[in-house]
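Record 1 of the preview.
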Amino acid sequence: YDRVIEHLKMKDESGDTVRRLALQIANSRQCSDAIKLGKESLKIVRAPGKDEESFQSALRQVEKARDQLPNNPFVLNVLGTAQYRARKFEDALAILSFAHRTLADANHWPDPSNTAFLAMTLHQLGRFQEAQESLARFRDQTKGDQSNGNRFVRFSRNREFPALLAEAEELLKTAKE
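->
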């Protein structure tokens, strides 16, 4: 798509209207491909236990998605997760924090998986107190208790969160021992 878009931006024999329409089509396809790359990467990085090459491959893939959609919170969350799995903790912290701020600035709810990976990343960087605080926020976001006005109740039914919680708790308990 990049080459097609560059070609379309150059003057050619087709009219401006045709060129603008072709650019719109190419740009929209680029966006959907970035989301597709993010989803494919997420399938690999959402859980531990894969080999290092799988995580590196997923990281390269989602980096391409980020190049196409640099401020998309979904892509940024997947990128931060992939960086965490690839043991690039400083990079993961920066991206996960940026994704969290991007959602907050847009008045959206934070993604609980972002909070969990922030907790694990902070722990890996030796920032144990902040990691525990993030883990507590993740628990609150996923418990689904409507009695206290929990706005995250919709996340409580996500089947992946119990495994993510178990992974985070296992990692973070090592600082207490």
